[in-house]
Specification:
The chain has 3 helices and 4 strands; from the N terminus they run αβββαβα. With 71 residues, the chain is α+β, with helices and mostly antiparallel strands.
């Protein structure tokens, strides 16, 4: 979805921003799994922002995330 928006707006995505999620064929935003691993990978690569679907955050177990770098 981010690629399509960037193409439509003719703008590049900002450096350091990572987007995770899934879209159905009808355009619904779906939950994603493995958020702790994705967050660790983003931190390791120096990314500053991870965007996730809000529906994923509702089911999130905060104890499973690495909190030393979170704000």
């Amino acid at each position: 979805a981010m690629s399509l928006v960037c193409m439509a707006l003719k703008r590049r995505p900002k450096p350091g921003v990572v987007v995770t999620g899934a879209l159905s064929l009808t355009g619904r935003v779906l939950d994603v799994g493995g958020l702790a691993g994705k967050l660790q990978g983003c931190m390791r690569e120096g990314s500053q922002t991870l965007l996730v679907p809000s529906s994923t955050l509702q089911h999130l177990d905060a104890a499973s995330l690495p909190t030393e770098e979170l704000r």
